[in-house]
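Provenance and format

Records in this collection were gathered into a single text stream. Each protein contributes a sequence line and a token line. The two records reproduced below are adjacent in the stream.
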Amino acid sequence: MQILQKDTQVDDKTIAADKEVLQHAYPATPVADEHAYDVVVAFDIKAGLITSAPPYQQLVDNQTAVQALQGFRPSV
């Protein structure tokens, strides 16, 4: 936020409001789970956006993602 304020000369009130919004924009566990993936794939297929999708396990390495995010707290 300091960079935003410095580069754009945004006032403190606007920075505080932006910070509040951005803090709620980050999920508590920012890892895509298999159910969410399946829902998106089903929607995309039904909408005609795709004809098929690779299996979830082929795309998402949850173990690495979880380990990388342990202790992660976005600071905005």
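Adjacent record:
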Amino acid sequence: MYDVLAIGEVLIDFSVVMSAGVPQMFGSAGGAPANVLAAVTKFGGRGRMVAGIGEDAFGDFVRRALGAVGIDDSGLVRVGARTTLAFVHLAPDGERSFSFDRHPGADTQLRPEHLREDWFEQAKVVHLGSLALSHEPARSAAHRALDLARDYGRVTTFDVNYRPALWNDPREAVEQSLRVIGRADVVKCSEEELHLLTGRQSPDEALLELAAAFPDTRFLGTLGPDGSITVIRGECRHIPSIPVQAVDTTAAGDAFFGALLYQLTNDATPDAVQNRLRDDAFWLSALRFANVAGALTATRQGAIDALPALSDILEHMPA
């Protein structure tokens, strides 16, 4: 059985950095759901990726890259579009902005009929990223995945992962994200995404509003160097991170979510995963682990290449 089945984008991340005033670029396999899955497998779990890739050299590259980190690539589908490219622009403090070559990108061309029911039967958790919601037919494929996850009683997780360059209107991104949030068991939002979804400046107030509107969903907020927050029994709980010198935050949130999913699924049956979902003490412990994973990832450049080993996380866990 697979711990996590991820549906969404796999692409090439090109990081653009300045060296002596000259722009330099290097590429690596990425895409938020793929990064999340790579964290799960690097820590010792099993994962399968479902995504559209192109009939091109970049598609060949991402297939090899996922296989190299132990991800089952049987769900990668060759489609009639080029593999999506992302360009990550890094600021001196490691924060990033994005632009994309996606007109259309292969990730948008995943179709509902590409999804096999046995993939869902064989998974403990079904994970979705929001980029699949920006265009059809991938949007319909994402909702078909939610249908199948429900049919097999699987836990569903969702990363809001808002990228303004991929949406015609932020209101559409909010509308589509809320449709999925209403069907998900666990949802992760950054501080900026909490503001986008609710209009509130305070992450605590935003998280409480979402938790009240969707009482069956576990919400997690990431606050960069300030750690993370969640709602437990109607109150926001802050879980601090560890201090690090950030170099590249591209995959920090994905490492955070992957570490959570590893904790959620490790040595667990599907029924046990459901039980952990409702265990407040489990979430506080898992969030401490995930904070360390995200922080350590930010100290390295790249996406999948930047993910820490499980031993690194355990070594840096707060006493």
